[in-house]
């Protein structure tokens, strides 16, 4: 899709395919462009529209390049979809007279800038002004996403540290969490942490891309930048640096929650093994006594004793009961 914007408002572009782009089109926004749309922009402006494959290159020399009459920039940008966020490439071709943006998903930042231009918010926009506005809105979107991530991690922290791996003392049997339910709850917490960590990594990749783009453009576009561009670029760099620090703290929090959850899972496993250990120890003395009196020797002291059988059963029961009482006193279960 192709949309055009002049210094103050959007431009009609329905007939662009027949007559070419308007001469006052400062911002050319391409959303998942077709080959015909890319060819039209290249023919009219003389600027090469980068393909999706070119924008996906990871080396710095491919993402930040100086072209003949401007700059070619690209960065991965998160889709900001809370359900399943992904990284998609975002590209800019910036010259003194025009800015071409190439993207493959909807971004709130672009809609906000278009609304500000339509409302006449500020002076007539130049290509550099539009670029700075886009950077400011993208940084704001990343800040909002990181704030939401921080709130999610706080709620997840409450779930982790309020999780009771055992039943409350004195609770009724129907109030006690079954091991299966506790296992499912811990699995859900672990998956939630994993999803947050995955999304946080994509936010960091987007933030890192902007962290590289802003100082590069600030250093390279001095010849055609607006009067207050330097101050706004400095503000952007400070904002990105503060977001980077905040993201680092969130990453540490994710790792802390992951370690805590794995510790809870280890406690659950230890409880299971402890029960198995008690059961095995309780079963050893009765087995030993039964095996002794099950030996086929002709002369055994209790063989002809009238109370031999009740005595054997009582001895087996007592040998099983003593370990149970011992472990109960020690608090093993």
TrEMBL record:
One GO CC term on file: plasma membrane
InterPro entries referenced in this protein's UniProt entry, alphabetically: CorA_cytoplasmic_dom, CorA_TM1_TM2, MgTranspt_CorA/ZnTranspt_ZntB
Chain segments annotated as transmembrane: 275-294, 306-327
Keywords, sorted A to Z: Cell inner membrane, Cell membrane, Ion transport, Magnesium, Membrane, Transmembrane, Transmembrane helix, Transport, Zinc
One annotated GO molecular function: cobalt ion transmembrane transporter activity
Main subcellular location: membrane
Catalytic activity: Mg(2+)(in) = Mg(2+)(out)
Keyword rRNA processing belongs to the record: no
Keyword tRNA processing carried by entry: no
Localisation: Cell inner membrane
Membrane topology, from the record: Multi-pass membrane protein
Family: Belongs to the CorA metal ion transporter (MIT) (TC 1.A.35) family.
Protein's name in the database: Magnesium transport protein CorA
Species of origin: Methylobacterium oxalidis
Native organism taxonomy: Bacteria, Pseudomonadati, Pseudomonadota, Alphaproteobacteria, Hyphomicrobiales
């Amino acid at each position: 899709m192709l949309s055009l914007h002049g210094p103050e408002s959007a431009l009609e572009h329905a007939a662009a395919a027949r007559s070419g782009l308007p001469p006052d089109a400062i911002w050319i926004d391409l959303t998942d462009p077709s080959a015909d749309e890319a060819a039209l922009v290249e023919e009219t402006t003389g600027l090469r529209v980068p393909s999706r494959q070119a924008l996906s290159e990871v080396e710095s020399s491919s993402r930040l390049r100086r072209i003949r009459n401007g700059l070619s920039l690209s960065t991965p940008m998160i889709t900001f979809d809370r359900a399943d966020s992904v990284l998609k490439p975002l590209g800019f071709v910036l010259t003194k007279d025009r800015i071409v943006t190439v993207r493959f998903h909807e971004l709130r930042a672009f809609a906000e800038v278009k609304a500000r231009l339509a409302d006449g918010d500020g002076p007539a926009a130049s290509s550099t002004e539009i670029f700075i506005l886009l950077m400011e809105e993208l940084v704001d979107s990343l800040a909002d996403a990181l704030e939401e991530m921080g709130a999610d991690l706080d709620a997840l922290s409450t779930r982790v540290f309020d999780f009771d791996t055992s039943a409350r003392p004195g609770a009724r049997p129907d109030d006690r969490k079954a091991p299966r339910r506790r296992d499912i709850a811990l699995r859900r917490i672990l998956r939630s942490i994993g999803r947050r960590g995955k999304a946080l990594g994509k936010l960091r990749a987007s933030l890192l891309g902007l962290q590289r783009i802003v100082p590069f453009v600030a250093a390279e576009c001095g010849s055609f930048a607006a009067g207050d561009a330097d101050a706004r670029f400095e503000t952007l760099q400070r904002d990105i640096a503060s977001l980077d620090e905040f993201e680092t703290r969130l990453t540490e929090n994710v790792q802390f929650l992951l370690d805590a959850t794995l510790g809870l899972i280890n406690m659950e496993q230890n409880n299971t093994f402890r029960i198995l250990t008690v059961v095995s120890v309780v079963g050893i003395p009765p087995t030993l006594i039964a095996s002794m009196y099950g030996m086929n020797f002709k002369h055994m002291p209790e063989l002809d004793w009238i109370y031999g059988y009740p005595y054997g059963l009582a001895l087996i029961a007592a040998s099983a009961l003593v370990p149970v009482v011992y472990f109960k006193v020690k608090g093993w279960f």
